[in-house]
Amino acid sequence: MAQKEQLRTVYRTAKGREVDMTKLVSQNEMTIAVGNMSVNARGDKIGPGGKIVAKREQLQPASSLIPEQVSVRKPQPEVAKPQPQPEIEVPIKPLTPTQKAKAIKDMDPEGLE
Hints:
Strand order of the largest sheet: 1-2
Helix content: 10-25%
């Protein structure tokens, strides 16, 4: 089976210059990347002095190198659901014959009755 050829991505700038991104990436793949991950632009792990500690092929799992491969999810352990607490009933005192039930329209909005 023939190896796939990388697509060349050539962009034209506003001034009309052509920039070949594939060539630009390959020229700068050993440059240390900006950030706190200690890697170069290629993805290799960098140690003290800029030496390569681990190659990107060693850092990536084998399944991520093959894009056609379907990843199989591992079943997640079931988490115990909390049991609902029984509702506590609060006894309501009935109105005495001398008390009158208040309507909402009779109530004071500030609660100063």
